[in-house]
Amino acid sequence: MHWTPEHAQPLNQWPEQHLDVSSTTPSPAHKLELPPGGRQRCHYAWAHDDISALTASNLLKRYAEKYSGVLDSPYERPTVGGYGDATFLNGAKGDPEPWPGPEPPYPLASLHEGLPGTKSGSGGGSGGLGGSPVLAGNLPEPLYAGNACGGPSAAPEYAAGYGGGYLAQGYCAQTGAALPPPPPAALLQPPPPPGYGPSGPLYNYPAGGYAAQPGYGALPPPPAPPPAPYLTSGLPAPTPLPLPAPPTSYSFQTAAPGAEAGVSLKRKAADDGAEGRYRKYVYEPAKAAADGASYPAADSSECRGNGFRAKPLGAAEEASGKYGGGVPLKVLSSPVYGPQLEPFEKFPERAPVPASRGGFAVPSGEPPKGVDPGTLELVTSKMVDCGPPVQWADVAGQGALKAALEEELVWPLLRPPAYPVNPRSPRTVLLFGPRGAGKALLGRCLATQLGATLLRLRGVTLAAPGAAEGARLLQAAFAAARCRPPAVLLISELDALLPARDDGAAAAGALQVQLLACLDGSCGAGADGVLVVGTTSRPSALDEATRRRFALRFYVALPDSPARGQILQRALAQQGCVLSEPELAALVQGTQGFSGGELGQLCQQAAAGAGLPGLQRPPSYKDLEAALAKVGPRASPKELDSFVEWDKMYGSGH
Ligand SMILES: Nc1ncnc2c1ncn2[C@@H]1O[C@H](COP(=O)(O)OP(=O)(O)OP(=O)(O)O)[C@@H](O)[C@H]1O
Ligand SMILES: [Mg+2]
């Protein structure tokens, strides 16, 4: 400052002059009250804002020397008790008042932004560097306009856990964790909105990473999160995003959900969440029976329905009796779902029937009323199915259908007390779909699940001897079923019992009349413990009277690709043929539209092509390719469409 005589006068008489700035720290006498609003302006008598070039360069040089070390040195968190926000924000030490008035024209990040608990967007003394809080924190006050008027002379210090009035609601004070030195460049930009960090990854997962998804196997936890990148916005990391919904899919071995025709989204949606629920339906290649049969033949002398072994009654069997009539059954508990799923429990053993009565006999020893004993004997010997038990897992695919059958039919029949709402659980179900799609197989499976004796009839067989004879056999079958509960009466090709719509032959009518009477319960079908399963590949041939007699009507669609693969593998394994993965995949692809029955025929055809009977070697892929020329799918696309249409109109959906 150049001394002149005017300067001898008292200060306040000094003429307005420009200040020759040599320090920006005004002496106490010059400390200004902050003007309301707006940025602080310093107007001293001698202040003027143009300084000589020499002075400016001296200043720059001095500051450059003085602070070059600071800029290069790592950021050290200011010690406790240093200057708090107040100092910085207001250029007046310890002044707790927030920066008065409206925010400065643009949201400057205050010195403390970037520290959890700092007031975001607050008017701040940080000047010139565009909201570079921490960098600003490193720099001396000359760079802060706010401090030009009495700011601290040293880098501001932050009280650990600072919680002064400047903190916006909801922010927690910095807890003393040293902040990593911020990337200076990143701090030169205006603070991004909360939740967005620098160009690096979004910091949005909890410190411990995501918990493994329940049920779908523990997802590998994501790598430990990097140290929280300093968010230039100065805001604490946003709350973690909600965990992603676990993936939805059936857990048992079939195609992707919905791949099976007619699978209702409702049921799928209802079941998607039950992880592992359908695990019990997983299709397991059967243990090839010694004689190569698809199922180990049961010992027919012990035939009790599906080849059950007789076993002395246990206490549980005594206690039951719901379906036992005179023949108490072990109380079946419904299969346990979910991860703790037990392997499908052995279906109950049926109580032994004294050998003297053999075969299918009335528990009380009395033949059912109105039924000729000879006919009864015929029915018993011809109709009782002594095939091996069929578990859900023996039926490839059909996941949603199996679940519907179990929930709407098996459970209510097995556990009436658990279903008080529906005192009369359905006792009639119609399975319709293409030939060989597995309708009879499912009927047998129902008998196994119910621990029931299985009586099998074929519409064609009943109709063959004439309607009158057929009607008599039908009546005997129902009576036999009634006196050996629980029993499943499986009537295949139901449509054959009805007169062909076009010829209206009266004879067949008698058969249909008998069928409807029996379905109405007049010959035992309504009795407890008798389930009638009708199957047809011509549902449209059923008239309304017959259709309405079946409380449930389910579409048995052709197997999807995974199911075809499982059926092929099982059939070929029984012939000692093992295909490579690519060969099996090609075969599955090449048998699109085949039913389970047709796949079995294909394998038999291939085996036949693999050498003379008795000299056969296991069929090879080439034999299968050759067999494809002879065995093809019977159901036409038009026919398949008609099934879907009928299902939409009359099906129970699943
Ligand atoms: N989903 C499946 N899983 C395993 N095997 C199957 C499946 N579908 C059909 N099969 C096999 O195909 C053959 C025919 O099955 P099934 O008799 O149940 O067909 P269907 O629908 O009753 O035929 P139809 O309409 O001619 O009476 C059986 O050997 C059965 O084991
Ligand atoms: Mg059948």
UniProtKB/TrEMBL annotation:
Keywords: ATP-binding, Cytoplasm, Hydrolase, Nucleotide-binding. It catalyses: ATP + H2O = ADP + phosphate + H(+). It is found in: Cytoplasm, Cell cortex. Its cofactor is Mg(2+). Residues 10-27 have a biased composition (Polar residues). InterPro entries: AAA+_ATPase (IPR003593), ATPase_AAA_core (IPR003959), MT-severing_AAA_ATPase (IPR050304), P-loop_NTPase (IPR027417). GO terms for molecular function: ATP binding; ATP hydrolysis activity; microtubule severing ATPase activity. Residues 120-129 have a biased composition (Gly residues). Residues 97-107, 219-229 have a biased composition (Pro residues). The keyword Transmembrane does not apply. Residues 1-36, 91-129, 218-242 are annotated as: Disordered. GO terms for biological process: microtubule severing; negative regulation of axon regeneration; negative regulation of wound healing, spreading of epidermal cells. Pfam families: AAA. It comes from the Eukaryota. Residues 425-560 form the AAA+ ATPase domain. This is Fidgetin-like protein 2. Belongs to the AAA ATPase family. GO terms for cellular component: cell cortex; cell leading edge. Microtubule-severing enzyme that negatively regulates cell migration and wound healing. In migrating cells, targets dynamic microtubules (MTs) at the leading edge and severs them, thereby suppressing motility. Microtubule severing releases ARHGEF2 which activates RHOA, which in turn regulates focal ahesion turnover via focal adhesion kinase, as opposed to F-actin polymerization, to suppress cell motility. Negative regulator of axon regeneration that suppresses axonal growth by selectively severing dynamic MTs in the distal axon shaft and growth cone. Signal peptide: none annotated.
